[in-house]
Design goal:
Helix content is 48%, strand content 11%. By secondary structure, it is α/β, with parallel strands linked by helices. The chain has a seven-stranded mixed sheet with strand order 6-2-1-7-8-10-9. The longest helix is centred in the first third of the chain and has 21 residues. The chain binds S-adenosylmethionine (SAM).
C-alpha cells in the first residue's frame, strides 16, 4: 500500500495533534490536519504500518522518540514566512549583501545563496527580493533552495501564495515582485528564475550537488532544531566546507545562540548574531563587522539583593568559571536606557538584574519587548525578570508570547517549568521540562531540574534516572540559554557534580 492510498480518520489526526502538543508543545489546529495527514502518509509506509492509530501508539512508546523526530519536520513545514526574523533580514540587506555583491562583481560572478530547508519558498524568494532591491541584476544572484519535503519543494517552485501569507511583504515589494491572480499572489517570472528549487536531505552523509567553497551565503533557519547533536555537527561541518572563506551562515533565532563546537565564528551584525566561515586570504575584500566583545564574567556584588525565587538548584555550587559562554548578553559598557541595539539593551538589562535593580530591569525589558516584538531573548528576559520578582502569571504570559513566536523554543519551555516549580505546580513543571528535553535531549540543566521535580513528587526512582541523565551530559555540548536568568548554571560539569551529589543523597535514604 502506498502512502497516498492510506485512510487516516479524524480520530487518529486528533490523537496525533494531542501527542504533538504534549511532547513538543506544537499546537496543530483542525486547519492543519491536512498537513498531519500528509505527514502520516509519508511516514507510515516507512514503518510498514497501514493503521493510523497504531502509528500514533508507536509514537507514544519510548522507542517512538526516533520516529517523532522524523515526523516533526514534515508537520512543521508550514512554519515559515516572508522576511522571517526581520532583524536578520535587515542585517543581510543593509550590511552583508551589498559587500558580497561588490565582491562578486569584482570576480565577475553571481552571489551564490543557499536556502537549506526552504519549506514553501518564502525564504529564498525573500533573499532574491533583497538582491534586486539592493541593485543586483537578476543574473547576479543565484539562489539554490532545497528541502527534504518534496511537496513543499513542488509548491515553492510554483511561487503562488495565499494572500494571508504575504503579510510580511511591504506594499512596494508586493507591487514590484508579485501579481495577483485567482485570489493568490504569484511571484514574477524574474523573481522565480532567480531561485532553483530541488529536493535535498541535509542529514545525508554526502552532498554531491554542493561544490566546496562555492556558497557566499547559507540560510538554514529553523531546521537544525529537529536534528540530534551528531547530525547538527555533521551538517555544520559540511556547511563550513560549502562556504567560501568569509561566507555567512544564518541560523534560526533560537538556534543561532547555541554554542556548538564548530569552526564558525559568531559575528554581531546590526544587533544580531550570524555565523561566518573565518576570512583568511580574502580579508580585505569582505565585510568586517565588529567582533563581539570577549566574554566577560558577570560581576556579582556581595550585597546584591536576593531575587524572589525559590532555591531551585538545590545544592548546586557554581564554580567561579561557570560563565564561560561567549554570551552576547554579557555586560558591556552601558548604553543609555532605551537606546542602542537590542543586544546592547539586553546587556544593560542583564547588568540591572545582576545589580538587583529589578524594577529598572523590568521597565527596560518591557520597553525592549515593545520595540523589538520579534526578539525572543527580550521576551524571555522579560519573563525572567517577572519570575525573579515573583510575578509568576506575568512571567508565564511573557514565555507564552515567546512560544507564539518560536513554538520550539527550548528556553521558553525550561523557564515555564521553573515558573511552575515556583508556583508549586509540580505536574506542570514536569511536563514543561519533558518538552524542553524532547526538543533538546542533551540539555543537562533540563535533566537536573526534571530530577528535582521528581523528588518533589516523591518519585525517587525517576529522580535518580534524571540525575543520571544529567551526569551523562558531562561531556556533552554546552548550551547557552537565550534570556538571562541569574544563577542558572550552563556548565555541564557543574550540573553533573550537583547531580552526583543529589544522587548520592537519594541513595542514602
Ligand atoms: C520550519 S521550516 C523552516 C523554513 C525556513 N527555513 C524558515 O526559517 O522560515 C523547516 C524546514 O526544514 C525542512 N527539513 C527538515 N529536515 C530536513 C532535512 N533533513 N533536510 C532538508 N530539509 C529538512 C522541513 O521539511 C521544513 O520545510
Amino acid at each position: 500500500m502506498t502512502g497516498e492510498t492510506l485512510t487516516i480518520d479524524r480520530s487518529a489526526l486528533e490523537q496525533l495533534a494531542a501527542l504533538l502538543l504534549e511532547r513538543a508543545g506544537l499546537k496543530v489546529t483542525p486547519d492543519g490536519y491536512a498537513g498531519l495527514r500528509l505527514a502520516m502518509q509519508a511516514r507510515m509506509p516507512a514503518l510498514g504500518l497501514d493503521d493510523a492509530s497504531e502509528y500514533v501508539r508507536r509514537l507514544r512508546q519510548l522507542a517512538g522518540e526516533h520516529e517523532l523526530r522524523a515526523l516533526l519536520p514534515l508537520v512543521t513545514v508550514g512554519k515559515t514566512e516572508f522576511f522571517r526574523d526581520s532583524r536578520q533580514f535587515a542585517a543581510f540587506e543593509n550590511e552583508i549583501f551589498p559587500e558580497l555583491l561588490k565582491h562578486a562583481r569584482r570576480e565577475a560572478r553571481a552571489v551564490r545563496a543557499w536556502s537549506a530547508g526552504c519549506a514553501t519558498g518564502e525564504e529564498p524568494y525573500s533573499i532574491a527580493m533583497v538582491g534586486l532591491d539592493r541593485g543586483a541584476l537578476p543574473n547576479e544572484v543565484d539562489c539554490w533552495a532545497t528541502d527534504l519535503n518534496p511537496v513543499a519543494v513542488e509548491n515553492a517552485a510554483k511561487g503562488r501564495f495565499a494572500i494571508r501569507r504575504l503579510l510580511g511583504v511591504s506594499e512596494p515589494r508586493l507591487a514590484r515582485y508579485f501579481t495577483l491572480s485567482d485570489g493568490q499572489y504569484e511571484v514574477t517570472p524574474q523573481l522565480r528564475d532567480m531561485v532553483r528549487f530541488e529536493g535535498h536531505n541535509l542529514a545525508a552523509p554526502i552532498w554531491p550537488q554542493v561544490k566546496p567553497q562555492s556558497m557566499d551565503l547559507i540560510f538554514c533557519r529553523n531546521v537544525i532544531i529537529y536534528f540530534d547533536q551528531p547530525t547538527i555537527l555533521a551538517v555544520m561541518d559540511r556547511f563550513y566546507d560549502s562556504l567560501r572563506p568569509g561566507g555567512w551562515l544564518f541560523l534560526g533565532y533560537s538556534e543561532s545562540l547555541f554554542r556548538l563546537p564548530t569552526r564558525f565564528e559568531m559575528i554581531e551584525v546590526g544587533g544580531v548574531f550570524i555565523y561566518r566561515r573565518p576570512v583568511r586570504r580574502h580579508a580585505m575584500l569582505l565585510p568586517t563587522p565588529p567582533k563581539p566583545d570577549a566574554p566577560v564574567e558577570p560581576q556579582k556584588p556581595a550585597d546584591r539583593p536576593t531575587p524572589k525565587m525559590l532555591p531551585l538548584v538545590v545544592g548546586l555550587q557554581l564554580p567561579k568559571s561557570v560563565a564561560s559562554m561567549p554570551s552576547p548578553l554579557a555586560p558591556r559598557p552601558s548604553p543609555s536606557p532605551g537606546s542602542g541595539t537590542p543586544v546592547e539593551r539586553l546587556a544593560q538589562i542583564v547588568e540591572d538584574i545582576e545589580k538587583g535593580d529589578f524594577p529598572r530591569a523590568l521597565r527596560l525589558s518591557h520597553k525592549l519587548s515593545e520595540d523589538a516584538p520579534e526578539d525572543l531573548a527580550a521576551r524571555l528576559t522579560l519573563g525572567n525578570v517577572h519570575a525573579l520578582m515573583g510575578n509568576i502569571d506575568e512571567a508565564r504570559e511573557a514565555y507564552q508570547g515567546a512560544l507564539q513566536r518560536e513554538p520550539l523554543s527550548v528556553e521558553a519551555r525550561l523557564y515555564l517549568g521553573i515558573a511552575a516549580m515556583q508556583a508549586g505546580e509540580n505536574d506542570a513543571a514536569k511536563q514543561e521540562f519533558t518538552r524542553a528535553l524532547f526538543l533538546e535531549p542533551t540539555l543537562a540543566l533540563g535533566h537536573y531540574l526534571l530530577a528535582q521535580v521528581h523528588e518533589r513528587r516523591n518519585d525517587p526512582e525517576s529522580a535518580r534516572r534524571s540525575y543520571r541523565n544529567a551526569i551523562n551530559q558531562r561531556k556533552g555540548p554546552p548550551h547557552a540559554l537565550i534570556g538571562h536568568f541569574p544563577d542558572l548554571p550552563t556548565s555541564n560539569e557543574a550540573i553533573a557534580q550537583a547531580a552526583q551529589y543529589r544522587l548520592a543523597a537519594l541513595s542514602e535514604r
